[in-house]
Amino acid sequence: MDPSVAVSPPAAAAVTALRDRGWTLATAESLTAGLLAATVAEVPGASAVLRGGLIVYATDLKHELAGVPTEVLERHGAVSPETARALARGAALRCGADVGVGLTGVAGPEPQEGRPVGTVHVGLTVPGMEPWSVPLALTGDRSRIRTAACAAALELVIAAATGEGTGDDDDGNESGS
Q: Helix, strand, or coil here: 18?
């Protein structure tokens, strides 16, 4: 580990919670472009839980790499709760992990698909539950939005792995695909 890089306390807590639960993790990241997986990888011992990740910045790669159904992208757009859930599912399936996290949103500087800067959806799938998503309305510049999206995703992973996550979301916890 590079001593100049500080380990994120939420990432360390997520690694511990996942390891204690016996779960592995995979990500499918759009606006964060691998930042979540990289943040987790900074934690010593992360290899016990981190399977891998998909960087799906371009919309077509959300379908091609993460398996987001074309119908979901056409009907709901790349920045939607449905896409976040499908990304989470795709990450877990494609990487052979127990837990999948999907991150999609608008970091700016311009709106995307009519959604304002700071709109973020975090999707999560864990064993025994249908994927769910959580909407976020973040503020700040691109860096702050991306960092805050990762922090929120880590908190969701911790809550799910420790049994504190409910799976409640913004639209009835529908599977979206």
A: helix
What residues contact 74, with CB distance under 8 A and at least 6 apart?
A: none
Three-class secondary structure of residue 170 per DSSP: coil
Neighbours of 51 (CB within 10 A): 19
Contact at 8 Å (CB) between 136 and 156? no
3-state secondary structure of 65: coil
Q: Is 29 helix (H, G, I), strand (E, B) or coil?
A: strand
CA distance 56 to 88: 12
Helix (H, G, I), strand (E, B) or coil at 127: coil
- Measured between alpha carbons, how far is 59 from 13 in angstroms, rounded to an integer? 31
CB-based contact 26:91 (threshold 8 Å): yes
Q: Is 163 helix (H, G, I), strand (E, B) or coil?
A: coil
Nearby residues of 91 by Cβ (< 8 Å), 6 or more positions away: 26, 27, 28, 53, 54, 66, 97, 100, 101, 102
pLDDT at site 157: 98
Strands (E), 42-157: 50-55, 99-105, 119-125, 132-137
The pTM score is 0.91
CB distance 36 to 101 below 8 Å = yes
pLDDT under 50 in the chain at which residues? 1, 168-177
